[in-house]
């Protein structure tokens, strides 16, 4: 869940074909204004806690600006098209041995989505993920998330099929190992896409899946949860990098959705971990919701060792 107080735009109108089949967020939308009022009311009772929340909500991803060549896959304004994904930027990385696909979270416009993907590449380079000075290629997956919370969750579910289709096509047409990174609400896009891949029997399309500050319920990744069976089915490790310093998840997400986020404290204590799933506590490395992928600031050095990016 990214900054709930950033710039807004008109949402892509959700329709019945876009929502995932067993969860409907069409009722009880929570706008940013209501979300922030709820947060302010809740933390007001806790005195100094309000300062930390306000500080967290004003964070950014380090201020890195991507070049126009940053490769992106976008579904913005295209979900009703015959082919909802479009490639933009430069895709001149034929010499790379493996590729990372980065799925952003809430409140990212097209420019922010591009900048975040570029930041992830810089973070991987700083973490020593490859001998290349610029790090391994990172392709950004850009979707309409710069809307209010309820519509954003519907748009996340609506991107399940396009993301699954693109990943499967990459496996068939290119074949190089593809590591999927998902930040914040991007974890919902990813979980829904994994379900699609599992339903189709395309469980070998990814080399790894990593959630960073995942804004999904902490029981949804358990064996009996919404995404548990898909996580168990995927033929790749699934890592959940979580931080208790992430106050956007610890405060705002909990107030808005009435549950704990997997990106804050990991899998719910009452749930069982599916095969292939691993919680990785990065509280000692990650100071806020925005720094998971930042060079020198985030947890990518620890992530690289587990993921096996070379």
From TrEMBL:
Residues passing through the membrane, by range: 35-54
Q: Which GO terms describe its cellular component?
A: membrane
Sorted alphabetically, the keyword list is: Membrane, Transmembrane, Transmembrane helix
Q: Which InterPro entries is this protein grouped with? A: AB_hydrolase_fold, DUF726, TAT_signal
**Quick one: where's region Disordered?**
1-27
Record membrane topology: Multi-pass membrane protein
Instruction: Report the locations given in the UniProt record.
Output: Membrane
Q: Name one Pfam family in it.
A: DUF726
Question: Which PANTHER family does UniProt cross-reference here?
Answer: TRANSMEMBRANE AND COILED-COIL DOMAIN-CONTAINING PROTEIN 4, TRANSMEMBRANE AND COILED-COIL DOMAIN-CONTAINING PROTEIN 4 TMCO4
Q: What name appears for this protein in its UniProt entry?
A: DUF726 family protein
Q: Lineage from the top down? A: Archaea, Methanobacteriati, Methanobacteriota, Stenosarchaea group, Halobacteria
């Amino acid at each position: 869940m990214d900054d709930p107080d950033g710039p807004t735009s008109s949402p892509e109108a959700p329709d019945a074909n876009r929502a995932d089949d067993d969860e409907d967020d069409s009722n009880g939308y929570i706008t940013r204004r209501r979300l922030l009022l709820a947060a302010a009311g809740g933390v007001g009772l806790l005195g100094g806690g309000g300062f930390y929340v306000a500080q967290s909500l004003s964070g950014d991803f380090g201020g890195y600006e991507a070049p126009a060549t940053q490769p992106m896959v976008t579904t913005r304004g295209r979900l009703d098209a015959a082919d909802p994904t479009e490639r933009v930027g430069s895709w001149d990385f034929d010499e790379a041995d493996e590729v990372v696909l980065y799925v952003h979270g809430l409140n990212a416009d097209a420019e922010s989505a591009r900048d975040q993907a570029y930041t992830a590449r810089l973070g991987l380079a700083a973490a020593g993920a490859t001998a290349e000075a610029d790090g391994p290629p990172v392709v950004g997956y850009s979707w309409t998330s710069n809307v209010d919370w309820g519509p954003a969750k519907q748009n996340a579910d609506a991107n399940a099929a396009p993301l699954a289709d693109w990943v499967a096509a990459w496996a068939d047409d290119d074949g190089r190992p593809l590591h999927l990174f998902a930040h914040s609400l991007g974890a919902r896009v990813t979980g829904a896409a994994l379900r699609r891949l599992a339903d189709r029997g395309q469980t070998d399309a990814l080399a790894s899946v990593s959630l960073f500050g995942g804004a999904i319920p902490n029981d949804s990744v358990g064996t009996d949860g919404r995404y548990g069976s898909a996580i168990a089915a995927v033929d790749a490790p699934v890592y959940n990098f979580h931080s208790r310093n992430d106050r956007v998840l610890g405060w705002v997400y909990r107030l808005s959705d009435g549950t704990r986020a997997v990106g804050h404290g990991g899998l719910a204590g009452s749930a069982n971990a599916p095969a292939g799933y691993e919680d990785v506590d990065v509280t000692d490395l990650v100071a806020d919701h925005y720094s998971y992928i930042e060079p020198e600031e985030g947890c990518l050095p620890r992530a690289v060792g587990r993921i096996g990016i070379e």
